[in-house]
Amino acid sequence: MAAGTGAERLQDGSCHFQRSRLLWMIAIAFGMILLGWVTLSPSTIPYSYLGLFGTFLHHIAEHYHTWVCYAFYVSWLIHLVEALYGVKLCQSKGITDPAVQFHWFVQTLLFGYASFGLLVSYKPTAKKHF
Length: 130
Prior knowledge:
Blueprint: H1 6-12, H2 22-40, H3 51-63, H4 65-92, H5 98-111, H6 113-121
Helix pairs in contact: 2-4, 4-5, 4-6, 5-6
């Protein structure tokens, strides 16, 4: 079976990719970076410049650091599992282009359900048989 042209591949869904919403991407990136910072280097955070939020972060870093570490590593594990399952989901939904599957993998690894939810809700168009 010969590979289709670019236009045919776009129509059959084998190259479907949808970027997550920018607001979700910014919020998740901020949260993951902040969680990583509190986990890996809490002594370098300028708590005094962050006002009430800094006071809260300092309290969390000082009294619940073990739980913050668990949250950090578990959140990355969840993102990794979502990304790996996303590749399988791409294949089952007819997204066969390896570069597009890689885009879905990276986006889901970085932004979690904001990307994975788009892939789950994607409904490939039914193929017409003449």
